């Protein structure tokens, strides 16, 4: 039997995650049945679950991949830039529904919450590190603890995601993000 290359396995995993992302975004976690996942991904359940133990593992892998992408942008350009990117290219963020599903499952599924807390630490760490660097450089307010700034930005991010996912992203959200950015900057 021929050995499958690492490149082929990575490409197949990427195909599965891309298809699952659109399926979860369209139908939510519960509505993304195995049949719908098969149709969205274009592979059989055997091929899908060869790479992922079950639907939950697939969803967690997808959420982790999305959190890593956000962490990269947050670490280099800040969490407000993540939000600006969402507004500029909402079509590239079809994982917004996935983020809402994560929030729902955090509330209703203690096992998921425990696993997600470990996986989401990377985004939190990246954002916190950038805030600390910006604060040390004198660019951010020093009258508010860094963890409070982080909580504030996370709250704005969650609100923005809910707004975009519900189809109510208005033209004034860029101005809102300008206001958010100004509110965390150090006043001269």
Automatic annotation (TrEMBL):
Positions of the HTH tetR-type domain: 10-70
Transmembrane segments annotated in the record for this chain: none
Record SUPFAM superfamilies: Homeodomain-like, Tetracyclin repressor-like, C-terminal domain
Keyword Repressor tagged: yes
A GO molecular-function descriptor: transcription cis-regulatory region binding
InterPro entries, sorted: DNA-bd_HTH_TetR-type_CS (IPR023772), Homeodomain-like_sf (IPR009057), HTH-type_TetR-like_transc_reg (IPR050109), HTH_TetR (IPR001647), Tet_transcr_reg_TetR-rel_C_sf (IPR036271)
Cross-referenced Gene3D superfamilies: Tetracycline Repressor, domain 2
Keywords from the named record: DNA-binding, Repressor, Transcription, Transcription regulation
PROSITE patterns from the UniProt entry: HTH_TETR_1 (PS01081), HTH_TETR_2 (PS50977)
Organism superkingdom: Bacteria
Signal sequence range: none
DNA-binding residues: 33-52
Pfam families in alphabetical order: TetR_N
Quaternary organization: Homodimer.
Name listed for the protein in its UniProt record: HTH-type transcriptional repressor AcnR
């Amino acid at each position: 039997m021929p050995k499958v290359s690492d490149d082929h396995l990575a490409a197949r995993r990427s195909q599965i995650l891309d298809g699952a992302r659109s399926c979860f975004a369209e139908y939510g976690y519960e509505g993304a049945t195995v049949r719908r996942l098969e149709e969205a991904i274009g592979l059989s359940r055997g091929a899908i679950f060869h790479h992922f133990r079950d639907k939950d593992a697939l969803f967690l892998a997808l959420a982790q991949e999305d959190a890593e992408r956000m962490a990269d942008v947050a670490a280099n350009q800040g969490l407000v830039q993540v939000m600006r990117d969402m507004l500029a290219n909402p079509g590239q963020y079809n994982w917004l529904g996935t983020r809402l599903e994560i929030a729902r499952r955090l509330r209703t599924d203690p096992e998921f919450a425990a696993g997600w807390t470990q996986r989401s630490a990377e985004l939190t760490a990246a954002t916190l590190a950038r805030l600390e660097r910006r604060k040390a450089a004198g660019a951010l307010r020093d009258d508010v603890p860094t963890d409070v700034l982080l909580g504030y930005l996370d709250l704005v991010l969650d609100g923005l995601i809910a707004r975009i996912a519900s189809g109510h992203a208005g033209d004034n959200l860029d101005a809102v993000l300008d206001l958010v950015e100004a509110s965390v900057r150090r006043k001269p």
